[in-house]
Amino acid sequence: MPVADPDSRAGQRYTTPEILDWVARVHAPHDEALARAFDAPEKHGLPAIQLGPSEGKVLELLLKLAGARRVVEVGTLAGYSAIRAARALPADGHVHTIEFESKHARVARENVAAAGLAGTVTVHEGRALEVLPRLVRFGPFDAVFIDADKANYDAYGRWAAENTRTGGLLVGDNAFLFGRLLEDSPEAAAMRRFHEEARAQFDTVCLPTPDGMLLGVRR
Ligand code: MG
Fold it and tell me: What percent of the chain has pLDDT over 90?
């Protein structure tokens, strides 16, 4: 009889689309507002690169565990993860989320409003490297979630280290860079720097989600 653990530690996955769907429906179900935001990319011709339902719920629970109140998200897309994040916060909490594409930002604002969170989530439109310095005055932050252009992850991570309170969270999606993390490319080098520099400032782990999720707690 095969012993599973060495295989799973080496990367073997026992998930199937059916299993992923079943556990998401049990643990991370969508209500109307989440479904609207999750389905928005396909409906509006945006890239369907939002977090999966289970990963969105991971983000939500991490923020709850951290007692997060002030959160920054880099990469809004249609607002699905911003809604997940906002729901983890107390009544006076706030999510500042940054989106480069104006069409995405508009769709996200509509979804956030439909979720009843227009007062909790601010969608900032523009290049994250230009918007982030303007958010410093709202910090220090309890959590920074990065899910944006991969070539700038190292810069986003540095900003997070400077603007996150002790005990605060860093979460980075696509930390395996779609399987290209170890390649010889500027993007992969930036993503590796993100990992290594995060490790220097945060207690870190890279959760083996389908594309990796870096998790750090600020020292
Ligand atoms: Mg992502």
Answer: 91
